[in-house]
């Protein structure tokens, strides 16, 4: 299946807060921010209008929504509804988009893979909206259709961490890294889950693997900094967080890195 990771495209932001504990925060979209859609959304039908509408979503989401609305009046069906939902997501209306994507996936007569993909998009949209419980439900429906999909398993692991269920998240992400060991994001999720289970040595090994794959992965650096702080190495932690700020100064990860450094300056981390 084509990867559907909105987080990799920037629509879902994965960050880790410090302060001694381990939390995965889902940053909801700025209402003025245009969010990218998946690079190759699943096709529910084969129609030139559908392709035209999807092609518009990234560059002109307002135009795509207008096109989809007009197409709906001409009996555009689920394809028009899908394009409209993706346009809403790109425009930052994540909750409305999630609701629409979920309805489309439930009612669609398309093939199993396409329906699973749309459920996955619904889950990612719920994550963007800061609703991990709804995301987990949608992703579980997606995985019921395509149980071995690594993208969906990674996304559900993220939702489970957001629900403070690290053992369950670890179960999902272990399948992912066993299937494809090149996924840096999965190794970061695994590291966070292990840390939250107080298994620090394997957590450190996991984040090291993520950084071998992507040396400048800001989430991995943020996580390694938290692990270093937890293991009594505030200097190493500060170095990692300074690198996060250097690499992505305007991102949420940089904000958390700065907060983490402030906590070091303020005194012992609080659990």
Topology:
Layout: H1 6-9, E1 14-17, E2 23-26, H2 48-59, H3 61-73, H4 77-90, H5 94-107, H6 112-128, H7 132-145, H8 150-162, H9 166-179, H10 184-196, H11 200-213, H12 218-230, H13 234-247, H14 252-266
Antiparallel strand pairs: 1-2
Helix pairs in contact: 2-3, 2-4, 3-4, 4-5, 5-6, 6-7, 6-8, 7-8, 8-9, 8-10, 9-10, 10-11, 10-12, 11-12, 12-13, 12-14, 13-14
Can you put this structure into words, describing what you see?
Strands 1-2 form a two-stranded antiparallel sheet. It is built from 14 helices and 2 strands. The protein folds into 2 domains: 1-164, Tetratricopeptide repeat domain (Serine Threonine Protein Phosphatase 5, Tetratricopeptide repeat); 183-271, Serine Threonine Protein Phosphatase 5, Tetratricopeptide repeat (Alpha Horseshoe), CATH 1.25.40. The chain is 68% helix and 3% strand. A hairpin with a 5-residue loop joins strand 1 and strand 2 (23-26). With 271 residues, the chain is an all-alpha fold. It has helices at 6-9, 48-59, 61-73, 77-90, 94-107, 112-128, 132-145, 150-162, 166-179, 184-196, 200-213, 218-230, 234-247, 252-266; strands spanning 14-17, 23-26.
The percent range for strand residues is: under 5%
Name of the CATH class of the largest domain: Mainly Alpha
Total number of β-strand segments? 2
Low-confidence stretches: 1-39
Mean pLDDT: 86
Q: Could you give the order of strands across the largest sheet?
A: 1-2
CATH architecture of the largest domain: Alpha Horseshoe
Oligomer: single chain
The CATH topology of the largest domain: Serine Threonine Protein Phosphatase 5, Tetratricopeptide repeat
Helical content stands at 55-70%
The CATH H-level superfamily of the largest domain is Tetratricopeptide repeat domain
Could you tell me the radius of gyration in angstroms?
Answer: 19 Å
* Shape verdict: elongated
Any idea how many domains? 2
Total DSSP helices: 14
Structural class: mainly alpha
End-to-end CA span: 41 Å
């Amino acid at each position: 299946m084509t990867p559907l990771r909105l987080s990799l495209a920037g629509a879902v932001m994965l960050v880790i807060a410090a302060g001694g504990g381990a939390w995965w925060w889902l940053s909801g979209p700025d209402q003025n921010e245009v969010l990218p859609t998946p690079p190759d959304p699943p096709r529910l039908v084969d129609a030139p209008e559908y392709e035209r509408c999807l092609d518009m979503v990234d560059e002109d989401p307002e135009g795509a929504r207008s096109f989809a609305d007009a197409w709906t009046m001409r009996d555009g069906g689920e394809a028009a509804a899908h394009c409209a939902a993706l346009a809403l997501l790109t425009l930052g209306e994540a909750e409305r988009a999630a609701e629409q994507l979920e309805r489309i996936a439930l009612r669609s007569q398309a093939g199993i893979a396409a329906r699973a993909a749309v459920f996955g998009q619904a889950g990612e949209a719920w994550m963007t909206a800061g609703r991990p419980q709804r995301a987990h439900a949608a992703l579980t429906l997606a995985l019921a259709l395509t149980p071995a999909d690594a993208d969906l398993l990674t996304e559900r692991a993220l939702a489970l961490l957001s629900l403070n269920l690290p053992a369950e998240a670890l179960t999902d992400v272990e399948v992912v890294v066993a299937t494809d060991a090149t996924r840096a994001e999965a190794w970061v999720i695994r590291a966070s889950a292990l840390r939250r289970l107080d298994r620090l040595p394997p957590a450190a090994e996991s984040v090291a693997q993520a950084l071998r794959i992507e040396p400048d992965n800001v989430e991995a650096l943020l996580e390694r900094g938290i692990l270093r702080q937890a293991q009594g190495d505030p200097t190493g932690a500060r170095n990692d967080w300074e690198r996060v700020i250097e690499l992505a100064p305007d991102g949420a990860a940089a904000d958390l890195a700065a907060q983490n450094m402030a906590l070091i300056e303020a005194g012992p981390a609080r659990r």
